Amino acid sequence: MNKKFAILILTLLMSMTVVLAGCTSKQEPKDAMKSATGNAMKMSSYEMKSKVVIKDLKVTSQDTENTAATEQVMSMLKNAEVTVDGVYQKDPMQTELTMGINLKGDMSMSFNIPMVMTKEKLYVKIPSIPMLPLPENVVNKYLVLDLKELAEQEGTAFNPDSLDTQKTQQLSNEIMNTLFGEYDGNKYFKDIKVKDANLPEGVDAKQVVQFYVTNENVKEAAEIFVNKAMPKILDIVAKDEYRDMLGLTKEDIDKAKSDLNSTNQDELSKGLNDLKNYLKINQFNVNTAIDKKDFPSYQDAVVDVEMNDPETKDNMKLSMELTNQYSKINGEQAFKIGIPKETEVITLEQLQQEMGNASY
């Protein structure tokens, strides 16, 4: 079994756990997480703060050709921080996010990228990036993308559902309930005492639920996902409203099902058994804090894994932390950026023209 498959499994497990959660009363951990996904549907507006910190990243390879480039990238990414602060409201649909990127090491740099999204348009502020010199007259302008026009130019019909946050939450809800239903509550979920959860100041929680994967259960977790959960997830995605939203065709879904069914089970089983030979999970858990109003107020995830391929001798160590905090849930929101004015925007055609005229 190759490392790409193992990375895919870990990514899928991470995606499964990083969900909006909340419950109506203190319940068994698994039940709390299952009912939580439904409660997330009631979030019609909120403020959010997210952060990803790469604590450690090491990659060693027998391929000496790419060693220098790999080391340079790792140097940039070690202790790198990505933050996302934002505001969302359902009606009228408006979202604004400011993504902060802070790279450290020998090529340290920091910059922010504000973004605004409405039902049909996306605005992205063009930042000043030291390694990417841009014409002065485009820096700090908002690149406006009319998604309906772009779809027409590509000869396709604009699908507003692709930006429907409510429908996306609904899809997530169905998928998460299916996933949680397949996993044993005693093996993968547990309560954490609120006082021991290291919640930041201002987070008021009545229950903290942890989903966790260890060396002891990772093989079983992967088998459950591939053999039990994935077929059911494909059935959910195959529903007309979700398939169209995701831009998939019936043929795409049928092919995915066929590929899944035709997978050599002996080969898959051997691959999963081989996990123990090169995958070590030092820590992999996600804590979800649920407030007294039955909404998710805070999440933190810790991922610390090592992969050592005995055949290729390629090794990787990844340690990262993620946090996600919600506030002012279903309250009146204040947008700091707002919809950019006409004098503040630039179209894609204008940007391309300015870039073409620029001399460096």
What distance separates the N and C termini? 47 Å
Please tell me what the overall shape is: globular
Calculate the mean pLDDT score and round it: 80
* Helix run count: 11
Number of DSSP-assigned strands: 12
Radius of gyration: 22 Å
Q: Percent helix among the residues? A: 25-40%
- Output the structural class: alpha+beta
**Uncertain parts:** 1-5, 14-25
Q: In this structure, how is the largest beta sheet organized?
A: 12 strands, mixed
Number of domains: 1
Order of helices and strands: HHEHEEEEEHHHEEHHHHEEEEH
Residue share in β-strands: 25-35%
Protein described:
This is Lipoprotein. Keywords: Signal. It comes from Paenibacillus dendrobii. The chain has 360 residues and is of the alpha+beta class. The protein has one domain (3-357). It has eleven helices and twelve strands. A twelve-stranded mixed beta sheet has the order 7-8-9-10-11-1-2-3-4-5-6-12. Helix 7 packs antiparallel against helix 9. The chain is globular and about 60 Å long.
